[in-house]
Amino acid sequence: MNKDTSIxxxxxxxxxxxxxxxxxxxxxxxxxxxxxxxxxxxxxQGFNPQPVIVFGLPLSVGVTSLTEYADIELxxxxxxxxxxxxxxKELPAGLKILDAAIKQDGKxxxxxxxxxxxxxxxxxxxxxxxNEIExNEIExKVRKFVRxxxxxxxxxxxxxxxxxxxKPMIFDLEIKSINTIDxxxxxxxxxxxxxxxxxxxxxxxxxxxxxxxNEHMNLNLKLARIxxxxxxxxxxxxxxxx
Length: 242
Description:
The protein is an alpha+beta fold. It has 5 helices and 11 strands; from the N terminus they run E-H-E-E-H-E-H-E-H-E-E-E-E-H-E-E.
């Protein structure tokens, strides 16, 4: 990058309207919006130049998010406020830039992400779902789960399936019984609030967490919705926003 370029880090949300589109489609959507907004973005070299945008931690299809991050490299200096304003006018419903600032750190956002916070909504259709004793039993089992010294889970990767200990990847986990989301069903909803390791060094996805809870605690919790509430970097042992 030469002296005439700059990198702006944006914070954006991904809502219900676009939760079923892939990360690749999100990248394409940003690229098209940037071109329409006439933002002076840098392009990669080669036969198929692409806008230079680095995203923090790609979301799985079906997951919404309160706060995501991306680094946008520019060929001309413009103010973060101008980028936010002009780009928001071109983005579709469900994508909105919340904040923008000149990138201050040396690493790109993908290399910095260390932790992610989630709200995970699960449900059970057990016959005793409306029984207070049953609800307490499920909550107590989840609390007992997180107190285990070792939590072995089966994780699928590019090199096949392997058993890993996910206990060091769970930094916080709380469960709370809430009202039914669908009034036409008897599904009882529980909200799990959690902080999980994320990024290149270690990454625990919410769906694998729920699978491990079911296997270790003999439960049958089913995923209803996943909402990412934050991404964090590790700055001298303290979790901060990028």
